Amino acid sequence: WSSDVCSSDLEIRPDLVMLSISNFGQSGPYRDFKVSELVLNGIGGDMYSAGIPLRHPLKLSGNSLQYQVGAMAAAAALTAYFVQQNQGIGQHLDISAQEVLAADTNHKSSNLLAWAYSGMGLTTSLLGRTDPREIESDIMPTGVYACKDGFVRVAGLLPFWDRFIKIFPELADQFVWPDDITDLDRKYEIDAFWYEWCAERTKNEIMEICQNVKYFGMAINTPLEAIDDPQFKSRGFWVEVDHPVTGKQIYPGDPLHAESSPWKVRIPAPLL
Known about the structure:
Layout: H1 3-12, E1 17-22, H2 37-44, H3 64-87, E2 91-96, H4 97-103, H5 108-118, E3 143-147, E4 150-155, H6 161-167, H7 187-199, H8 203-212, E5 216-219, H9 223-227, H10 230-234, E6 238-243, E7 247-252, E8 256-258
Parallel strand pairs: 1-2
Antiparallel strand pairs: 2-8, 3-4, 4-5, 6-7
């Protein structure tokens, strides 16, 4: 459903309760982006603390985060139905999986507290995790790389060489797939192009170019950049709360957008 369709339906029948569940919400620049359970774990889950030390992070089992989003949507729908039954008010609930997971505190609070006192997350080893570049199987860029204004995370896979050379067409005649692509002794040739190319571009530029050819590449946001993320900003996700001890701070806001009963912060949480 689009927001326009739901709005027009509510005009026809004001007591109608409708629910939309989508990856990033019904509006904003990420509206049409696709996700999987693995991506949901990356954008709102606990991947850093899940898995075996010295190996890659793992997502939680099954489709647990999708169930979590569904449970939140079900609670929102029941609340909206209760309002409709008691006050005759209908509304369109716009559920964003990204916002539900970003607002969730599961493991996040305990990990932050553990990090503050011990220097490591509650469920992570002192050894941390390995750099993905240490266990590469092909010559395409894989790992975290510096760029003009920060860092990007990219992942190369053998079947995606044809996507990578769309970024660097000048390399197409220099390597034979798959033999040369798995010859790690030739990786320095790719790195010479890649590092220089990244240094001349911002992380969002690199992300957009990679997405255009379906190569796995994503900007790495700092906490401040997450607050400035265009998707969150366009949907008004972050809110400012005047805390009695720390003063005004930015907090996650409402993951459930209800058109006829907009959410707002009334008071901060009580002190201990």
